[in-house]
Amino acid sequence: MESIREGFYYTNESDQFMFYDLDLIEKVDQPEQIRVGVRFAKKSSDGSIENQGITYFLTKNDAGEWGIENID
Q: Got the DSSP string for the chain?
């Protein structure tokens, strides 16, 4: 079975994704970070559909610009 993380490398170009919910958005002070969680459906090439979720962790770089540090 393919893990969620492996599914995001788009090795199978026939998969389709539909993002449908923002289930987390919060700012944390220590460490200074923004967390954004989204829910989505993944339709595989065999027609199966899985509901999944992913969280993006954003932090500032030395220039003060926000960017994605981690995806989980």
A: ---HHHHTT--STT-EEEEEEEEEEEEETTTTEEEEEEEEEEE-TTS-EEEEEEEEEEEE-TTS-EEEEEE-
What is the model's pTM? 0.69
Contact 38, 58 (CB under 8 A): no
Environment class of residue 32 by beta-carbon count within 10 Å: exposed (0-12), middle (13-18) or buried (19+)? Answer: exposed
- For residues 9 and 17, is the Cβ–Cβ distance under 8 A? no
User: Rounded to 5 degrees, what angle do the CA atoms 3, 66, 21 make?
Assistant: 45
Give yes or no for residue 31 having a pLDDT over 90: no
